Amino acid sequence: MALYEYVTKEQLAGFDRYKYSAVDTNPLSVYVMHPFWNFLVKFLPTWLAPNLITFTGFMFLVLNFLMLAFWDFDFTASSAGNQHVPSRVWVAAGIFNFLAYTLDGVDGKQARRTNSSTPLGELFDHGLDSWACIFFVATVYSIFGRGESGVSVGVLYYILWVVLFSFILSHWEKYNTGILFLPWGYDMSQVTISLVYLVTAVVGVETWYQPVIFTFLYRDLFTFMIISCSFAVTLPMSLYNVWKAYRNNTLKHSSLYEAFLPFLSPILLFVLSTTWVVFSPSNILELQPRIYYLMVGTAFANVTCKLIVCQMSNTRCQPLTWLLLPMSLVVGSVVTGVVTNETLLLYLWTAAVILAHIHYGISVVQQLSDHFNIFAFSLKKPNRD
Prior knowledge:
By secondary structure, the chain is an all-alpha fold. It has 14 helices and four strands. It has helices at 9-16, 27-41, 50-71, 87-113, 119-144, 153-177, 184-203, 218-247, 256-260, 264-279, 284-287, 289-313, 324-335, 342-372, and strands spanning 22-23, 180-181, 211-213, 216-217. Strand 3 (211-213) and strand 4 form a beta hairpin. The longest helix has 31 residues, at 342-372. The two termini are 14 Å apart. The mean pLDDT is 93.
């Protein structure tokens, strides 16, 4: 039995009717990675559950995050004059990141190979992907750090939100069109960053101090690529796909309010977290950037997972996520001076957000496993007689 039944009966009925529909037009994915994954999946044992592959890949990203947290907790290790992250750590980071990316590409192929594809598998995959955003961004940040040749914690905070915004756009598209248009930036970023980790291990972080051309530094290139990819590629393509569905009378939500409803909770989360950053009495983002990013990324994953449940079950997205209510109280207590130990409150609230999200995830997985009469991490059929 599930810890708590987050998925309604209407949504369970929607999952029964669900059919996977996705479009992937990225040349790197179509002509390079998919043939590579098709080759690799042949070596996997047929008893290996796809969700176990998905979870293993996700844990490689968590391991990268924890590993860099040990060597570079406050993102200062890459600054000139500080003790840098050892080369062996960057080698491990590159390998783990590519393994995570590869397993994320292989899991669906293993599901089709073993005839075990279910809506739970897709939900589990995309739900973990939404949480992976923070682990990926925070680990990449350690390459440049927050020194003179790096990126300030404030700028990185907004870059993180650009990445999160780009991620939720794909699922907003599917909520409105019924088709998941896979973003081009994902495959390119995963391959590039895996290589950058390995290059850093060989040449050292000092290489990234140098300008690419004139006074244009690598940190500027890093920032430019993320922002331009989001606003010049991902956003226009998402809007075009939704507009095309509207023009062809295939849009699932005719009302403008209903179509944009999934953005309400993410926007409120952005407002709340940014209010805390701007009005923090102790400048909490400067003091605890890693923990603050983790809190925001986890809260965002919780919001996104609920959208994914709605778009897969073809049900109406709820305007507000309950997690935002206690968060508004937390932020209010900080900016009004009711709570003076801001760091302690951040740690406690981050722990609460993580536990709430894990509870939600386990409950949904158990509920759908019971509904489809399957095990989440095994291909054996349960005997529930």
